[in-house]
Specification:
The complex is a heterotrimer of chains A (374), B (265) and C (324). With 374 residues, chain A is α+β, with helices and mostly antiparallel strands. Chain A contains twelve helices and ten strands. Classes of the chains: A alpha+beta (374), B alpha/beta (265), C alpha/beta (324).
Chain lengths: 374, 265, 324
């Protein structure tokens, strides 16, 4: 066995046991209290989960895209919120690694071991339409002065380092890296979302934050490209989160249907139930294959935009449906706030919107299909 | 000070079934993990290491893929690892396995402390510790629930059925530990990569100066004659009488007959 | 190798009490053995535990009265038993309790005698030539193995508590042999001090041997009080399902199930628990499960060894009365 295979196996062994002992038992409590109870984030930091895919030269473990996605999948089986918090951190690190200059990388990447990094595009005036944003950076000598208001940031309020999309000219988008220790940086209000309630989603306000050129990610005008790249990375990992949610549902429904009887027959023997269970399993497996293919393509330097979009679009829609089927199988228990099915539906529902709506995914997929035949 | 920790790689779940065709245990699709009790043995060694700067050597006997568990132990904090792997070891029962382990520990030389988990979760025998202690001709303390080291001696708490023991043990010693002894840590994600800088040595039968009659199947007095699935896996689902008082009488009678409720409690 | 046509049992003594497994082993051996059944007893000079052992009808008791040995050092006891066996010859079989003491001493003696030992047996029987067929579980009781030791003696085994019944039996043929001149080779490495454990009361449900679990059907004060009284009678610990953790006196440490604790008691009594998956995930290791529920289709019944269809509170009260 080679070093890579052994490393991956050790990692996944650890993740499974961590999820079983530290995450899964708190799934309901995380949802109800809207926070990472059980000192979960401290444990995540202590075990260096935040450095999972951070390159070795910056003190990370340097695991590849497929391994990272598998880890996210395993964590989501225990609690989808925690998986999404890590997804937000990893996709942001990915962009600094890919586009950052050496000075920026040397400053921030070693810190990413302990400090969560976030990526923020959305503003009150625009989300999926980046040109609608108002935040801007102006050059004064060799400094940039940044002003603006970013909202609905995954891990907003929790993260300490932010990649922010701003205008550097009326039709020019660029991305800068700022952090919470800079003068003029303020946390704003937190959102009160329906699902993935463990994930803090919030606002940051930038008042005359002053940074030098090294804080520019890539070059001036590369904002859209880097934003798209962050979306692609996030969508692969969301496919993994959705797979984990459906695996969680399958665990619940198969156990229930095997033991619950109607007139002496376990309900798993009934076709109506079987059809639902089978559909959940097919959706789970399809989503898994899609995210693993996209991650493999990423690891091999191929364009994975379309596969990433498919993983998220297919995965989110089918996970919501799978949740609905699960609820139906469990009947009253499924509908109860005392049992986890209902929050799995709310969690999955978030991913039909976040990181680009399902509609936007379909546009991207359709255009890619046409483009590849043009 | 030198500590050897013996570990075993076991299936991640004990929920295994017998394959109808091969009549053997079906382990397809089940991954290996370090035996849970052995994680406590490792942690006990690391805690002693933290106080005494001891050298911790982790050891296992088994096929080459057990190297994953050795590497994991290195990532957890062991200093070096030894894999005992040879076709000649196949089919060994506890006695033959204990013999090979003891010879390997002797080869390491000057080992002060050997630590094992109280038992493995697959074979469930718990025999390895006492057997190795006997072959090494050293004292043993099994089922240690609390371990401390001071002035070169170990201070151990151990629980029998209704008895609590406080034991002071001088080295050399063999120790087996329960899951009460400590809280094993998770492997740190970054340490996995770093652990590959540490040495993993493989010893074959020829490296150990073994008596051929005492290894593998030839050295194993026990023979597994057959394996089967337990008959009554499913619960009895015995319905008690309809009247609460009759039901209670019936239940208590059954429980007493079956020694589940004993008079003395 | 000198062979002795006897089957031996090691008497487990926890400080000054014979562990009941010893009696269970005597009764079982008497049922299955064609050879004389001998009990080996190590006790302190002030004890006469053979008086109690006699009542179960072994053919012979070998008593080693020695204060040092009675302290329970595995190495010293191994030395003593080894010396004894050198004198008597090797018995056909030698069985121990699968307790901490038995599971520590037996394998050490096994290695000394270089024979086979089967740990944690659930059943024993002999075949015609006095071959001991040992049935042991492995993989956490998911697989049963039949193990034999064809060419070595003694055939050694440790046996789980409470799988066999103990029955008193008068054996007029009983022989008692006192070994007085046994040389004890002492183990200077260990100093052992022992004390009897006090009866635990504030046990956690993880380690509890007996649990009374209450569900949402039992949410009222009065129902809870009843359950607690039953638990007191049984020396059991109270466990709850998720809805009850809303009450101040319970928290996640008292909750059984997927988002709470996994339990493995000898006996679990479920009062008014329906048996949702989230709950039953935590009870798969309970040995004997008793459930009471008004819903005759409650899923919990499927997990139960014994179940009562009806009011859980009435059942609990009735049970309490029987246990007076």
């Amino acid at each position: 066995m080679d070093q890579k295979t052994i490393s991956q196996e050790i990692l996944l062994r650890m993740v499974k046991s961590f999820v079983k002992n530290e995450v899964a038992p708190y799934d309901m409590e995380i949802d109800h209290t809207r926070s990472y109870v059980n000192d979960l984030l401290a444990k995540v930091r202590q075990n260096d989960f935040l450095s999972l895919m951070l390159p070795k030269e910056y003190g990370g473990a340097g695991f590849d895209g497929r391994t990272t996605a598998k880890v996210i999948n395993e964590i989501a089986k225990g609690n989808a919120s925690l998986a999404v918090t890590l997804e937000g951190h990893f996709k942001s690190i990915d962009q600094i690694v890919k586009y950052g200059n050496d000075e920026l990388k040397n400053e921030y990447l070693p810190q990413a071991k302990n400090r969560i990094v976030a990526f923020s595009m959305t503003e009150p005036s625009g989300g999926s339409n980046p040109m609608g944003i108002n935040s801007h950076a102006e050059k004064h000598g060799d400094k940039w002065i940044i002003n603006g208001d970013k909202i609905m940031i995954t891990n907003g309020g929790l993260a300490e380092i932010y990649c922010v999309l701003v205008k550097t000219a009326p039709t020019e988008l660029s991305i800068f890296v700022v952090d919470n220790e800079m003068e003029g940086f303020e946390y704003g209000k937190q959102e009160n979302f329906l699902g993935l309630t463990g994930v803090p989603v919030g606002e940051i306000v930038m008042n005359n934050i002053e940074v030098d050129d090294s804080h520019l990610l890539g070059k001036v005008g590369m904002g859209k490209e880097i934003g798209d790249s962050a979306h692609d990375d996030a969508r692969v990992l969301m496919g993994a989160v959705l797979t984990g949610i459906m695996e969680h549902e399958l665990d619940l429904v198969t156990d229930y249907a095997t033991h619950r009887k109607a007139i002496d027959t376990p309900i798993i023997q009934m076709q109506g139930i079987q059809r639902k269970v089978a559909d959940i399993a097919i959706s789970k497996e399809t989503t898994k294959l899609l995210y693993q293919k996209a991650a493999w393509m990423k690891d091999h330097g191929q364009d994975y935009e379309e596969e990433a979009a498919m993983a998220k679009a297919y995965g989110s829609r089918s996970a919501v449906k799978a949740g609905d089927d699960s609820l139906q199988i469990l009947g009253g228990y499924g509908y109860s706030l005392d049992y986890p099915i209902e929050h799995l539906i709310r969690d999955a529902r978030a991913m039909e919107i976040a990181e680009g709506t399902v509609e936007k995914m379909r546009t991207a997929i359709a255009l890619k299909e046409a483009e590849s035949r043009a | 000070m030198k500590i050897v920790v013996g570990i075993k790689q076991v299936p991640e779940t004990t929920n295994v079934k017998i394959n109808e065709k091969t009549k053997n245990i079906d382990r397809r699709g089940i991954n290996g993990v370090i035996n849970q009790y052995d994680r406590h043995a490792l942690e006990a060694a690391f805690e002693i290491k933290a106080k005494t700067n001891a050298e911790v050597i982790v050891m296992t006997m088994g096929p080459d893929d057990f190297v994953v568990s050795l590497q994991e132990a290195l990532a957890l904090g062991a200093d070096s690892a030894v894999l005992l792997s040879d076709r000649a070891f196949a089919g060994a029962d506890t006695l033959a396995t204990g013999y090979v382990l003891s010879k390997a520990i002797q080869k390491i030389n000057d080992v002060d402390l050997v630590i094992l988990g109280q038992q493995s979760v697959d074979a469930d025998t718990g025999q390895m510790g006492p057997i190795v202690a006997e072959f090494l001709d050293i004292s043993q303390v099994t089922y240690a629930s609390k371990i401390d080291i001071a002035d070169g001696a170990l201070h151990i708490k151990r629980y029998l059925e209704t008895v609590e023991q406080d034991i002071t043990a001088k080295l050399p010693l063999l120790l087996t530990v329960t899951d009460q002894a400590n809280d094993p840590k998770y492997v740190n994600v970054v340490e996995i990569t770093k652990s590959f800088e540490k040495p993993v040595i493989t010893w074959h039968a020829t490296d150990l100066n073994l008596d051929d009659d005492r290894v593998g199947q030839a050295g194993s007095p026990s023979i597994v004659r057959s394996i089967s699935s337990p008959k009554a896996v499913a619960k009895d689902n015995h319905k008690l009488a309809d009247n609460p008082q009759d039901a209670a009488d019936e239940l208590v009678k059954i429980l007493k007959e079956k020694n589940i409720l004993m008079e003395d409690k | 190798m000198e062979l002795l046509k006897e089957n031996w049992i090691f008497a487990e003594v926890d400080l000054n009490k014979v562990n009941p497994i010893t009696y269970q082993l005597i009764t079982k051996m008497n049922q299955i053995s064609n050879l004389p059944v001998t009990v080996v007893l190590i006790e302190s000079t002030s004890e006469n535990l053979e008086d109690e052992i006699k009542e179960y009808g072994p053919d012979k008791i070998i008593i080693i009265k020695n204060d040092q040995l009675a302290q329970g050092n595995d190495l010293e006891m191994t030395n003593a038993l080894d010396t004894l066996i050198e004198k008597t010859g090797r018995p056909n079989s030698f069985v121990f309790a699968a307790t901490v003491v038995g599971r520590s001493l037996a394998p050490r003696l096994q290695a000394r005698l270089r024979t086979g030992l089967t740990a944690d047996c659930l059943d024993l029987h002999f075949e015609d030539d006095n071959t001991l067929i040992q049935t042991k579980p492995s993989y956490g009781d998911n697989i049963m193995c039949e193990i034999v030791v064809p060419n070595h003696r003694p055939q050694m085994a440790t046996v789980r508590s409470n799988v066999f019944e103990a029955k008193k039996l008068n054996n007029p043929m009983l022989k008692v042999i006192n070994i007085t001149n046994l040389k004890v080779i002492s183990d200077r490495q260990l100093t052992i001090s022992s004390k009897t454990l006090p009866q635990e009361n504030a046990e956690s449900i993880n380690d509890a041997k007996r649990i009374v679990a209450v569900g949402r059907g039992d949410k009222t004060e009065e129902n809870l009080t009843n359950a607690k009284r039953l638990a007191d009678k049984l020396h059991a610990v109270i466990g709850v399902t998720r809805p009850l953790t809303d009450l101040e006196e319970f928290n996640i440490n008292d909750q059984i199930g997927q988002s709470g604790q996994s339990v493995s008691p000898d006996i679990l009594i479920n009062l008014g628990i329906s048996g949702a998956v989230q709950y039953t995930a935590g009870i798969s290791n309970a040995k004997t499960i008793v459930s009471a529920n008004t819903d005759k289709d409650a899923p919990i019944f499927e997990y139960s060894d014994y179940y009562f269809v009806g009011n859980a509170e009435e059942f609990s009260k009735a049970l309490e009365k029987v246990l007076q």
